[in-house]
Amino acid sequence: MQRIGLDDLGDLALGAAFLGTGGGGDPYIGRLLATTALAEHGPVALWPLADVPDDALVVPVGNMGAPTVLFEKIPAGHEPLAALRKLEAYLGRRADAVMPIEAGGVNSMLPLVIAAQARIPVVDADGMGRAFPELQMETFNVYGVAATPMVVCNEWGDAVVIEAHSAKMAEWLARGVTIRMGGQTSVAEYAMDGKTARRVSVPGTLGLCLRIGRGLHAARRRHADPFATLIALLKDTHYGFAKVLFRGKLVALHRETKHGFAIGYAAIEGLDDWSGRLVVTFQNENLEARVNGTVKAIVPDLICLLDSETAEPVTTERLRYGQRLTAMGVSVPPIMRTPAALQVFGPQAFGLSEPFRPIEANS
Amino acid sequence: MQRIGLDDLGDLALGAAFLGTGGGGDPYIGRLLATTALAEHGPVALWPLADVPDDALVVPVGNMGAPTVLFEKIPAGHEPLAALRKLEAYLGRRADAVMPIEAGGVNSMLPLVIAAQARIPVVDADGMGRAFPELQMETFNVYGVAATPMVVCNEWGDAVVIEAHSAKMAEWLARGVTIRMGGQTSVAEYAMDGKTARRVSVPGTLGLCLRIGRGLHAARRRHADPFATLIALLKDTHYGFAKVLFRGKLVALHRETKHGFAIGYAAIEGLDDWSGRLVVTFQNENLEARVNGTVKAIVPDLICLLDSETAEPVTTERLRYGQRLTAMGVSVPPIMRTPAALQVFGPQAFGLSEPFRPIEANS
Q1: What ipTM does the predicted assembly reach?
Q2: Torsions phi, psi of A60, nearest 5?
Q3: Is A280 on the interface with B (CB under 8 A)?
Q4: What are the tens digits of pLDDT across the range A2-19?
Q5: In angstroms, rounded to a whole number, what is the distance separating the alpha carbons of residues B113 and B62?
Q6: CB-based contact (8 Å) between B265 and chain A?
């Protein structure tokens, strides 16, 4: 089984920031936490989804809250494992593996922290194939896994177990608890067996984060075009299609922490060969990219804002006036584009009026 | 063992409304729920606190939320028992009895509903000796019982188990969950053994509610002065002292549902022998009574607003312009006036600047 060690964390954090599409929580903080855990407990086994036994207990784990808060309220380091242990106690069974709830930022790194501390593998898959802002926006939920019982923990040892009649109610209650716990918590939820995990997860996303990170780092060393590198790399995956949507300078930014989310938009004015204006709206993650009023990419397809020099992903909470940014769009795997999936995390689930159009068709 | 049957509910509801000091939730709604439960399951055994065995599991149960919401969002009837059952499952043990969390309004009646449905007794005691707005304001907490694990349930089958490092944190989290569940929930908390219950509870308060209700009803039939009846009746209890503070007409009312509470004040202009103005402030329950600016009674002593004709208690959510009201003050039992108790539910716990002065000393 492949193992993720200290030397991999730089690549993993970079790739996770890319798939986070602006959200998922600051990857630097995730990297610090993972570095501490792996330095103490050694490398973590990465379990290919296909190899997980039918009856293994897989528990998705991660961080909940506004990235703008995570940036200032850094996890103590013991609460992610506490969330897993509390859910195990409630279920009356130890987990055989953890899995990321989403691909992106801190939530690709935190499962490594827990896996290292608990000495169990992390499954190479997740429930979003990117980052999304709300807990019901999981392929786990789309394909019938119950979100609850779920556990929400903070750094003071407070813990809440939620049983809800729907994933949306679980999100609503857990968000309220997270806000009252200061805007950032650790969660464990959607516990399932290995057979179910293979049916409902987006496979291979941790491995993909590693490949993206390695590819970008190698391109930088070779002084190669990082955007061409990303497009070529993604072509061979189940994501498949990627393209540059726009390039320019950030000229306007509206961002507030509201209802427990980072909500707003960024406007980018064209530079070089690009004219006009790109507007990207976000709720933690980037949702819609319009160039001169026309939609060029829309959720669930990925909209990534990258530094125009280095292709370093810029998360929502790090956006600043004057940044030179390149927007890249990426198609998501087929499991995330079914009618059932679009109902849960398509444009209408975010209150957007535009219908979903695959990014390939917008080009 | 004494049993509470359908014929007792009118007396009990009336006495509970009195001890509710304006809060505790509308007693009429509690009476409807108890009537349904007792009609179906028969009378409920009332267990004197002194008779509860050392190792019996006693679970305080009740309703959480703003009385203004309860008034419009009436419990379905199954969620109070669901809260008990969920806590029992979490503790791995069945309760031998339930107990009211507070004396007053719906929360003196709901334990009867659960006791009838679960076919267990209700302990004749509670954790407030009156009604208070927040969950940490319990003699249980004052004298060292952990508030959690506690369960919060709604009418849709959603349930939350809270484990908190303090009773105040439990209140903070449960209040947030209650707000997101629509402002009204059923709770089970402060589970304890019989030996502890005897040490930390205000004894005899359900029996007292019955006696107050019977006394008032009898006075009405005899056309006797109901206020003199109350003063005489309370003199023989561990409450001891009661007096009329003011009499007049409600001329101003400010009441809003904020942060999950009914918060505001009522101003009453003197009638008959009373001149000047009484102002009563409340957070669900009445907190402070000032006549012409001078404090005449202050929390935790009871401040009860009663109809001037019938001495029917008027709860916060039923206050209306023009009502003829008589304010009565009552001293609370010694267990509620220790320095430790005043720290948890004295004037400063509500942000009031006046120190506590026993009502006897204010007269």
Answers
A1: 0.89
A2: -70, 135
A3: no
A4: 999 999 999 999 999 999
A5: 10
A6: no
